[in-house]
Amino acid sequence: MGRRWARGRLDIPDPQTPERRAKPRQLDAAEIGAIAHLYRGEVYRSTIWRTRLDTTTNWSVVTLGVALSISYAAPGASPLPLVLVGVLVIFFLVIEARRYRYFNVWRARARWLETHFYAPMLTDGDLHLDENWQGALAQDYQRPRYHISMMTAIGRRVRRNYLWILLIQALAYAGKIAVHPTAVTSWDEAMARADVGPLPGEVMVAMGAVYVAAFIAIAVWSRLSDSRRGAARGTGQSGSMG
Q: Which of 28, 72, 81, 101 would suit a FRET pair with 134, their CA atoms being 20 to 30 Å apart?
């Protein structure tokens, strides 16, 4: 399905255009029933894709657990599995971010119906956050697109789950260097234990620091970006889903 989707955000008419100012047309009983079934379908699809997100997170946790078991199995065991598992964790993160972009489409549609169809219904029609909500939803069905970028999806998944997984990985690696085979007594000894093949310990530690710092930066950027999007939506400056 992804190949048939254009990569970008949903194009929503400008707030000042007549299309945006037009009143949403009134729906008859049959159409309201159809929208109720549509909402149920979108909730079901978002639930299914939410489960798929949990699957990739579980893969990451399990592979990290295996690496921990191997590295801490004996005092003389190598810490290399804790380094290599980072490649798998990043791979699972990319897969999960791609799945999250799909999940975000179904979740955004369900949320759009809740906000612009059910909420006004519960307030006797006095609440209208977007006068062209029907047109925006129809456009999303006619020309489905991802509502967020891949980088935004990665940032959200890092912030929610993967930053903690990566921090545990980094702490486990540092702990392995510090305590096995005996407690480390000097910086030079720690760097000697961190050696991996031709790569000296200093290089490995520097790469690990960049690795952790990069994901912390992604998490912070994602939080600030989502805050700006939420503020813009709250002031009526954005009619987009996602």
A: 101
* Residue written as token pair 């065991």: 77
- Containing H/E element for 223? helix 201-234
Domain of 144 in residue numbering reads as: 2-234
For 13-62, the pLDDT digits (tens) are 444 444 444 556 677 788 888 888 888 988 899 889 989 999 999 999 99
Question: pLDDT tens across 43-54, in order?
Answer: 899 889 989 999
- Tell me phi and psi for residue 148, to 5 degrees: -135, 160
Number of domains in the chain: 1
For residue 232, give both structure tokens.
């813009």
240 falls within a domain: no
Contacts for 54 with CB less than 8 Å, ≥ 6 apart: none
pTM: 0.79
Quote the CA–CA distance of 88 and 96 in Å, as a whole number: 12
| Distances, alpha carbon 77 to alpha carbons 1, 53, 86, 175, in Å | 45, 33, 18, 13
Handedness of CA 91, 92, 93, 99 (dihedral sign): positive
